[in-house]
Amino acid sequence: MHTFEFIRPIDPAAAIATAGQAKTAQQGADVRFVAGGTTLLDLMKLNVETPTRLIDINRLPLDKVEATPDGGLKIGATVRNSDLAHDPTVQRDYSVLSQAILNGASAQLRNMATTAGNLLQRTRCMYFRDTAMPCNKREPGSGCPAIAGSNRMLAVLGTSEHCIATNPSDMCVAMAALEATIYVQGAKGSRAIPIGEFHLLPGTTPNRETVLEPGDLITHVTLPPPIAGSKQIYLKLRDRASYEFALASAAVVITVAGGNVTKARIALGGVGTKPWRSPEAEAVLVGKPADIAIFRRSAKAAMRHAQPQSENGFKIELATRCLTYALKMAMTA
Amino acid sequence: MPSSKWTRRDFLETSLKTGAVVAAVPAALQGQDSQEDAVVAARPNIEGTLPITLRINGKDRQLRVDPRTTLLDCLRETVVLTGTKKGCDHGQCGACTVHVNGRRVNSCLSLALMHEGEEITTIEGLGVPDALHPMQAAFVACDGYQCGYCTSGQIMSAVALLNEPCGPDDAAVKELMSGNICRCGAYANIVAAIQQVRKNV
After folding, report:
1. How big is chain B by its Cα radius of gyration, in Å?
2. Contact B70 A41 (CB under 8 A)
3. Which residues 48-107 on chain A approach chain B with CB closer than 8 angstroms?
4. Rounded distance, CA A38 to CA B96, Å?
5. Which of A42, A82, A243 sits opposite B90 (nearest CB)?
6. Domains with residue ranges and CATH for chain A
7. Which of A282, B28, B44, B166 has the fewest other C-beta atoms within 10 Å?
8. Nearest residue of chain A to residue B181 (CA atoms)
9. Tens digits of residue pLDDT in B15-69
10. What is the pLDDT of residues A120-143, one digit of tens each?
11. How far, in Å, CA of A205 to CA of A140, rounded?
12. Hey, is A294 helix, strand or coil?
């Protein structure tokens, strides 16, 4: 690990001022915020991340889960994943989020990992994590050996010829289905970013993963008021029963009246280069009978534009069945 | 001393202590209530290290660490509490599990400096051979280990689990213990040990 200056800011403004001196807030940033450390320290040990300054935000007052005046929920940046998953309001009104978080990582990691950190969780692509290998995300222009190499775990949606790395987060998939908004304070003031616009597709610049700029500090995330009467399911399929990243996952928030689907919010994990909201799947469902044939058609629509690689073509059918079954489970949730 | 009386632990601890004591200034040893404290106090101030106070197993420890020092390396190398083990060093195996303010964490993925003033509990703080923590006793009774390398992490995880939401059946225990890998595969007996303690709590 490269050495760094360890900074504990007195307030968010001090943290933002220091981070604002960074050249970039993206891959290879010279200044990094640290909260749980579960992604960042892992990558620093691998020399994938080599910040010269580390800003410890753990003591900043960003650790509360609170109701918002409009009936939604405000989740602080440093709320631990375990605290969020076990929050009574989250369990009652946003259970897909609780399920998603508890399906990720281990109990120890969930005690450390934070809301903002999970939003910025990095890919598990083995080429990204190994500095002996080329990787366009880590070293722009060096190439993507995953495309002709080991890509069983990698993405089939949102890929480009420069990068096929999967976004590994479970939490973000649930937040995409819940239409979360991310609040950022930066050098130029504060702004609200819908989660669908927060993560970027790799395109020709896979080193840019989010819209964050130097100095941007995620302060909190909000969820809109819960959808009354909605059924919520997070279904995750993986190589072992626990403590493993998704091969495919589905977050479903759905309401049914008189046998027909009235509202549907669908997002997929393990298959996309970003947390994958699927308006295509939602469009098939709304106004149609809540039955298995429609569920299957909806899931096929979600995967229509999937691009298989040499080893991960199975994910297309797996994700289709995952979403189909998640919708079926939601009917009895 | 006949070599047969030396354990690996004796050798390591004596080496660490001897190395430090040679460099010790007598004044630095005053006011210390154990040999381990003397070892820590006798460490020279290496350039670039920073002061930190951690409350480890109920005792305040004033230390100096390089900013890169993980909580795990701080416990093992600086404080010489070697019961906490380093397995993968990347948060994948759980051997390094300790409690911070009563919650279990992977000490390998946390910097010591992030824990200023916090309460750290390691396996050494749970029990002693003559007065084992009930979980330690249950692991012995149920044979919840083979090589023993993952055991301190397993026990720290299991003790924390007692205070977490967890269903009554074995499947719930297995799910919440999935962050602790046992290469020997002693899982069945580990689950039995944990369930034995849960039934008696």
Report:
1. 18
2. yes
3. 54, 56, 58, 82, 86, 105-107
4. 13
5. A42
6. 5-55 (no CATH), 231-331 (3.30.390.50)
7. B44
8. A243
9. 555 444 444 334 334 444 556 666 666 666 788 899 999 999 999 999 999 999 9
10. 999 999 999 999 999 999 999 999
11. 7
12. helix
CB atoms A3 and B67 under 8 Å: yes
At B128-152, the pLDDT tens digits run: 999 999 999 999 999 999 999 999 9
Distance CA(B155)–CA(B138), nearest Å, equals 10
CA distance B141 to chain A (A): 25
Q: Write out residues 137-156 of A within 8 Å (CB-CB) of B.
A: none
The domain that contains B60 carries what CATH number?
A: 3.10.20.30
For residues A101 and A110, the answer to whether their CB atoms sit within 8 Å is: yes
Kindly give, in sequence order, each residue whose CB lies less than 8 Å from that of residue B174, ignoring residues fewer than 6 positions away: A242, B187, B191
The string of pLDDT tens digits covering residues A230-264 is 999 999 999 999 999 999 999 999 999 999 999 99
SS3 for chain B is CCHHHCCHHHHHHHHHHHHHHHCCCHHHHCCCCCHHHHHHHCCCCCCCCEEEEEEECCEEEEEEECCCCEHHHHHHHHCCCCCCCCCCCCCCCCCCEEEECCEEEEHHHCEHHHHCCCEEECHHHCCECCECCHHHHHHHHHCCCCCCCCHHHHHHHHHHHCCCCCCCCHHHHHHHCCCCCCCCCCHHHHHHHHHHHHHHC
My answer on whether B49 and B117 are in the same domain is: yes
The domain of B20 spans 1-42
Sequence-ordered alpha helix ranges (H) in A163-276: 171-177, 195-198
Is A183 at the interface with chain B, CB within 8 A? no
Which residue's entry shows tokens 């709304």?
Answer: A286
Q: Which of A37, A109, A242 sits opposite B111 (nearest CB)?
A: A37
Give the end of a domain, one of B62, B94, B125.
Answer: B125
